[in-house]
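Appendix B. One record, verbatim.
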Amino acid sequence: MTAFITRCCKRLEAGLLLVLLLAATCARAGDIEPQRAALTPGEDGYTLSAEFKVDLGNRLEDAVARGVPLYFNLEFVLERSRKYWVNEHITTRSLGYRLAYSSLTRQYRLTTGNLHQNFGSLAEAMRVVGRIAALPVLDKDALKNGESYEAAVRLALDRSQLPKPFQVDAIMDRDLQVETKVLRWQFTAPVVVQ
């Protein structure tokens, strides 16, 4: 009788191990990849438009669907390169997003400052997070006509805003990490004839 129970337990352990391995291979880590970005001169100043491909991964999608809010930071930096010195810092602009799911209304809520938007699906909310249109970043007088500048933009998951158990897990668990990339490009201020 004991031998039968031991064999059944070993088979059960092997089956459980196989299920865990399959679940681990099915889970995927997320990434945020910049597609394009541009600075556009306007009447009041320069605006940033950017587009990102956002993929949270299975674990973070499941976490937000269970009510864990996610925080994202958009960071824009503009510098002027100098030959014999460090780059001159022109401006930094950051924007924060909060994404949460309400099980009562069954909607995802995206918050930026005092603006709130509700979405029926996570995909819709992530499309809005990944598209920045006409974000004012600097005054018109801040740039010199015809000068070349280095611009960089990045959208990242703010892990420091996650609940403490997720922060600890995110250090070791690849499925809770979102890889982010920085998009860098050269921008030349247009020459304005007066």
